Amino acid sequence: MPKDLTWENAEDIGILLSEKHPDVDPLAVRFTDLHAYVTQLAEFKDDPKKSNEKILEAIQMAWLDEYRNR
Predict the structure, then answer these.
(1) Are 26 and 64 within 8 A, CB to CB?
(2) pLDDT grade, residue 3 (50/70/90)?
């Protein structure tokens, strides 16, 4: 996993979110809250303004994969 994550690291972000919020169903998280979860990760070093719906959806799906595989 890269030390400094950017919006392009959807899989790695999904893993971290799954570890940080293990009891949260990713499909129940609004994109505004998901954006906040991502930007609050210590490993996240990208510009918060560079996200968009497509990026957030990719992160949500990566998180969902981790959530379902637990």
Answers:
(1) yes
(2) confident
pLDDT in tens, 35-52: 999 999 999 999 999 999
Tokens of 47: 């510009």
Strand partners, 5: 44
Whole-model pTM: value is 0.94
- One-character DSSP codes across 9-51: -HHHHHHHHHHHSTT--GGGS-HHHHHHHHHTSTTB-S-GGG-
Q: Work out the burial of residue 62: count CB atoms within 10 Å of its CB; fewer than 13 is exposed, 13-18 middle, 19 or more buried.
A: buried
Distance (Å, whole) CA 43 – CA 45? 6
Pairwise CA distance, residues 43 & 12, whole Å: 10
Rounded CA separation 28/6 (Å)? 23
